[in-house]
Amino acid sequence: MLRSVLRPIAAVAALVGLAAYATITLRGPQGLSALAEKRHQIKMLEEENANLLRDITAKKQRIERLKNDTKTQELEIQKRLGRIHSGDTQFKISEPPASPFSGSNASGATKDWQ
């Protein structure tokens, strides 16, 4: 008789213990929230890898254009070094020097002379 009573109680206690262990494990520091965070990190790293691959591909194409296309080479030289073809005229425009009578100092100077 004692066995017939203890067996169901032991089974229920084992199920309760298993449920408690599962709850603690799933909600703990390595549980479902950590799993979701890791999945989010994986997604972000995959996106970053895809962006880096696109950048690498674009740079490889640019290198090939610079190796093989003389027009691209000339444009790059003009952009980086400011060089032009021989026989071309180059104009460099700079800002004119500031006038000594322009700006807020002009009104202050006239007050001193009055």
Question: How do the helices and strands line up, and which of them pair or pack?
Answer:
Blueprint: H1 2-27, H2 32-68, H3 70-81, H4 105-113
Helix pairs in contact: 2-3
Note the beta-strand portion.
Answer: under 5%
- The geometry reads as elongated
For the terminal residues, how far apart are their CA atoms? 122 Å
Radius of gyration: 38 Å
Specify the helix fraction band. over 70%
Q: Spell the H/E element sequence.
A: HHHH
- Biggest β-sheet description: none
Low-confidence parts, pLDDT < 50 over ≥5 residues?
Answer: none
**Number of helix segments?**
4
Based on DSSP secondary structure assignment, what is the total number of beta strands?
Answer: 0
Label the structural class: mainly alpha
What is the mean predicted local confidence, pLDDT? 82
